[in-house]
Write a structure and sequence with these properties.
This protein is α/β, with parallel strands linked by helices. It has ten helices and 13 strands. The protein folds into two domains: 138 residues, Rossmann fold, CATH 3.40.50.20; 133 residues, Cytidine Deaminase, domain 2 (3-Layer(aba) Sandwich). The longest helix has 16 residues. It is globular, with a radius of gyration of 19 Å. It starts with a helix and ends with a strand.
Length: 285
């Protein structure tokens, strides 16, 4: 059985000969995704963003298999997908949040989409983009596709006994789920019944820095998906950068939703977490 046939995150009838277009933001996520998709025998194309996508990653693609656009140029993105003959697309990697307010270059298609939205959050914006992609016959894939071996496991992943207080964990999951349901963010930091920080538009790393300023006892960082999560976009991602932010904030306990959180370069993340004495636990909700 092929690697693609084994994936629970690919649609029935998936055709591995049709190109997968990665609409790539910042960081390691789109790079790792490209590596995994190619290893599964799927041809990969790239839509990159000025000032966001890794230049080295972009230059690894032949000119005929890549496109470089500005953030907000939705029409250009759709033209690139058509040019590639893409059968599938995945949005991977963050776009700097402030670009929604400064540094956005909306074309006519983007202006029309933004004008149609009552609320502008990850779900509404990415959902509208996914709808436009689907209209041109390109299937938007689950963002976990090809990354099955990078997903969080259930239980303590870093070894040793579980040191997270069950009441603190229950509290953290409940608050995180409510925050996610309201489309505010995907993470919270709690300590002994107190909410220290909630992830907002600024992202995880800034939230962790705020939480660290309280120097609370036994803080716990909880990351989750929202109830009814659309797994085509905004799937929680945890990597080495987040570990460094946890180290600076002196937060030593982390709970992420198992099977739904991507640990980028998972073996490296777990090894580094053990070095930093940060316990990383996967929970089911």
């Amino acid at each position: 059985m092929s690697a693609t046939a084994q994936s629970p995150f690919l649609p029935s009838g998936f055709d591995p000969t049709r190109p997968l277009a990665i609409v790539a933001g910042k960081g390691r996520y789109p790079i790792l995704l490209a590596e995994k998709a190619r290893a599964a025998g799927v041809p990969v194309r790239l839509v990159a963003f000025h000032g966001e996508t890794s230049t080295d990653f972009y230059e690894d693609f032949p000119e005929s298999e890549r496109a470089l656009i500005k953030v907000g140029q939705v029409g250009h993105m759709l033209k690139a997908l058509k040019k590639f003959g893409a059968g599938y697309a995945i949005m991977a990697g963050q776009i700097t949040p402030r670009r929604l307010f400064k540094g956005l270059h909306p074309d006519l298609k983007a202006v029309a989409i933004l004008a149609s939205l009552k609320e502008r959050n990850a779900e509404s914006i990415f959902g509208a983009l996914a709808a436009e992609i689907e209209k041109i016959g390109v299937c938007q894939l689950d963002a976990r596709a090809f990354l099955e071996d990078q997903l969080a496991d259930t239980g303590v992943m870093t070894g040793g006994r579980d040191k997270i207080d069950p009441r603190t964990l229950e509290h953290g999951i409940r608050i995180a789920k409510e925050v996610a349901r309201l489309d505010i963010g995907q993470g919270v930091v709690v300590s002994r019944g107190t909410v220290l920080a909630v992830e907002g538009f600024e992202g995880t790393d800034q939230m962790l820095r705020r939480a660290g300023q309280f120097e609370a006892r036994d803080p716990l960082f909880v990351k989750t998906v929202k109830p009814g999560q659309d797994y085509r976009f905004d799937v929680p991602v945890f990597g080495l950068k987040t570990l460094e932010s946890l180290r600076v904030a002196n937060i030593r306990h982390v709970a992420v939703e198992a099977a739904n959180t991507i640990l980028l370069d998972k073996p490296d993340v777990l090894a580094r977490a053990r070095e930093l004495k940060i316990q990383l636990t996967g929970y089911t909700a």
